[in-house]
Amino acid sequence: MPPHASTLSPATGDPGTPATAALHLLLLTVFAVVAYLPSFDVPFLFDDLPNIVYNPAVHALSATDLSHVLDSQVSASRPTALLTFALNHLAGGLDPVGYHAVNLGLHIANGGLLYALLLLLIPAGTNMRQLAFFGALLWLLHPVQTQAVTYIVQRMTALGTLGYLLGLLAFVLQRRGRLATLPAVAVWVGAFILGMTSKEIVATLPLACLLIEACFFAGQGRGRALAWLAGGAMLLSALLAALYLPGLTEWNVRYPNRDFSPLERLLTEPRVLWHYLSLVTWPWPERLHLDYQVTLSRSWWQPATTLPALLGLGLLAALGWRWRRQRPLAGFAVLFFLLTSALEASFINLEIAFIHRLYLPGLFLAAGLLSLVPTRWLARATVPLLLVAAVLALATVERNREWRDENRFWALELERGASPFRALLNRGSALVELGRAREAARLLEQSLPLVDPNERMILELQIAAAHFAMESFPAARVRLESLRARTGDRPEVLFLLALTHVKEGDPGAAATLVAPLAATPGFGPQAQLVAALVASTRGDLETAVASLHVLRAGPPALDPAMDELVAMQLADIHLAAGQMGAARDLYLEAINHRSANHFAWRQLYRLA
Length: 608
Description:
This protein is mostly helical and 608 residues long. It has a domain at 18-44 and 94-246 and 260-358 and 379-402. 66% of the residues lie in helices and 0% in strands. It contains 29 helices and no strands. Helix 22 (491-503) runs parallel beside helix 25 (524-537). Mean pLDDT is 90; it is low at 1-12.
């Protein structure tokens, strides 16, 4: 018998009794729920804000609003993911609990699909049910997955992975003779569309199916059944080349608003992939963070680990290919990791590193590693493997607890090597939202030497905003006037300076800033708000209130952040006019929209 003949025979792929499979799926669900319950009160963070909190396209209030996701100004290429956010909003507004529940449901579904797929791939007589269960369980509970589950916006990754797994499952069921070709193709195409409209990582699905063929079905009825996959793979390659290559006029020219070129990104990513693999083996929470400050590879030997990392990936690929016959699951796990990492680790204009990029590529790593364990040892490994799962679950629980406190979360990010600018900016915003503006201003002031000049300007604007929030208006004005003198009439600076003039009772100075704001594309609403506040400060409350109501009614529709600001200013005008009921209603509206609105709560307490 050829050495590979036992890798997949007609006797393999037996899922065992329905009762065993049901028990395993129940255990997977229970373990996942226990590990992720602490995530249900994690607030919206970082990219959650532009994609969900401040994205009117997903703020559905009725079923007819769901079509607005097609008009989203952010993540427009991912309408299926946006649709799920809109459904969440329709069901529960911006309460994070519902969003986390859906994310956990998707994660559990992916774990169940992984379990089913492993049962179909693992050879009979190798403790297949145990291997499939623990392969899925260890992936499900691994703390790196929090980056795609607890981090709400990365539902995009989880949904893309769901489509990927459904496509792989349809292919394997067809190859095993358990699903006719036509239904299999229909499911596969539907899964591909689901995945691609959630996140583009699914683009490599045709190649992954060919990889399964090479590892598990070698020599078993090649022919027409694979023709559509081969054609799909070639079409995919052509599409990717058409999409990305024309934009690369110069490999050594840095991308706009990035500090790396396409070539530098290609040279850096092998080191990043080895870091991801190290997280699989040692994922303690202290090593996990959202943002990265990666030392870029400026050449093949700078830093010195650049070339060894690239050569190491080549050796890893060769090892995976060699294993594809004698150790098919291990070989497939290695090759699948490299294949599914390739898109986001290529030259395309993305951030250098995010841990959620390990969610899909890491699917088969635990099962592949376990498949290297001799069968007789694996049969006795239930207790040790349960202990490993328990440790991973504890690490996941701890990581989820870290996400719950936004201020602590960003403080830990800074300690663990995140970009100082991004961590400081977000921590400062979190402190202001918590009503600790003085602490935010002090933190940011002390951190100015850590950032470059362009980043310094943004942090200084944040310092001014913190002074504004603590009602230290002279300090805010001095900072803003200094910024204006050094950086010119930047609209963000002018807008906050105008609001500061209003708060200081200087409507004349504020009025001089209306025209430059109105002349700046995208800042028309800000100019209208300042004009209304100038009228209010001059005693014309009726005009101010009418102007702000018109501004809120549109057109154009205000983005949620601007609408919240206008509502708060309108409430303050009502409060100053002694119209307590109208002010209270607007503050409550702001809180109902976003419960973490510290400023609305503060004003309500003043009304009490």
